[in-house]
Structure formats: C-alpha cells, structure tokens
Amino acid sequence: MEQGCKSGFVTIIGRPNVGKSTLMNRLIGQKIAITSKKPQTTRNRIQTVYTDPQKGQIVFLDTPGIHKAKNKLGEYMVNVAERTLNEVDAILWLVEPTDYIGAGERHILEKLQKVRTPVILVINKTDTVKREDVFLAIDTYRKEYDFAEVVPLSALRGDNADILVDLIFKYLPYGPMFYEEDTITDQPQRQIVAEIIREKSLHALDEEVPHGIAVTIEQMKERKNGKITDIDATIICEKDSHKGIIIGKGGSMLKKIGSNARFEMERLLETQVNLKLWVKVKKDWRDSDFLLKNFGYREDAE
What we know:
single chain; globular; 9 helices; alpha/beta; 6-stranded mixed β-sheet
C-alpha cells in the first residue's frame, strides 16, 4: 500500500428497491449483496471492501432500507440503518431520477438533517430517463439539502461509477487499510450461502410468497478431499400455504431453488456443492425476538 493512502467507511442508503445492492455489486465487481425486484431484500449490514493499491480502501456498509417499520424485523432493520449514519466517513444516498420527492425520501431527509457526515447524492437509473429529467432531479434535491456532491449514474450499466469512487476517496481520512488487499467481504461464508438461497427463493417464487422467509444453514462442511462441500439448509416460512408453494408440485419448486443456489455457491466456494434443502413453518417469526435472534438478526451484530 502506498504512502498517502486513505481508508474509511461508507454507507449506502435509500428507499427499498432503488438499486443499492446493484450499485455495491457494480463497484466491487463481484456479486455480493443479493439483488431482487422485491423491496427489503437486504436485511443485515453487508460489509464489502473496495481496494485500490494507489488510492486506498473503501469499506461499504449496505444498510437495510430506511422506512417506517411495521413489525419487529422492520424496527431492527431501521435501527441498524439509522445508527450507521453517524458512524461512517461518508453517506451515499441513492434516489431515482425524478423531480418528485415522495414520503419515503422525505423520511430519509428528516434523518439526514440530524447527521454531520458528508452526504453524496447518487441519482441512479439515469439510463431509464432523458437527460433533462436528470437535471430536474438534481435541482429538486439540491433545494432540500446541502449535499457534499451530486453524482448521476447508472448502477446497472456502470456509467459514472468510477467518478463516484474518486469522489468517495475525497471524503475519507488518511490511514492504513482495514483489510488485506484481496478481501472482498467480511461476511462469514455461511451467511453468504444463506443469502444466496434466500435470493434464489425470492426469484423463483416471484409474487407468490412475501418476505416472510428466512434461511438457516444447519451444516456446512468441506469433505476431506476439498472437492465437495456438503450444505444442509432450511427455508423458514410463516404459513403452511407458503410451505406448499415453496416445495411445489412433486418438489419441483424446491428443486429449482436448490439447483439455482447450488450453481452460484459452487462459483463462490470453488468446490462442488451437495445441497440439501428443507422447508419449515414458524408462524410470525418476524415478530418474535427469539426467532429473529435465532436467524441472525441481532441488534448487536455489527
């Protein structure tokens, strides 16, 4: 690492479904945060690490979306997101390219008024609108808050992503790296594997099953030859009717989820994966403190 390098923590915030995970994956260049068209896909803070040997290191915290909570899981997610805002060196706030500021954005603006951290406004999805619309969006938001920087970009296409990285470094303190150069995430592999299964479930089930699913990894062991990893996992849902949908006719849906997840796990772990999936019903797990802790959603999980 060269002298004069910077390193620091940056959080990405924004209303659910605005492209936070897509941006994270674009910047890091690997798929880490799971992506889905359903809101509230990200539940825990995901730390990913961007290292440039010349400039330094950015540690990204991808927070759960800030929104008005409806249940205990929602409250937990909002608390984690809001606490992060004062602990980082810079905040990236992702918004859509529109000149209408909705209730969700107003709620975030309220929260930002209370923080001293520099805020970089990122106007995402510029590939979906005309240039004039982007300028209108910039004008509208600038009237509401004194942003450190404003960057229009397309996370999907990667337009202006390199400019954003340069601007982030501007706000980081000088100092040594937090992680080795080849580190991309500090998440334990079990957690990433569980997230892959959850993502594949959300994709396969489409609109049929809402967010009431969690995944627990019962066992994850590499065999002695190092060529095969055995993974046993359980998909938890809230209703018996959901269990039937997740399993599918003759187990077809569960097989589909399993084979999609296995393909991605094998890329991640660089071994063959022998995956066994089960489905269990735990009613109202999203409102149970005990079950939330059991599935890894802990207030103290930093």
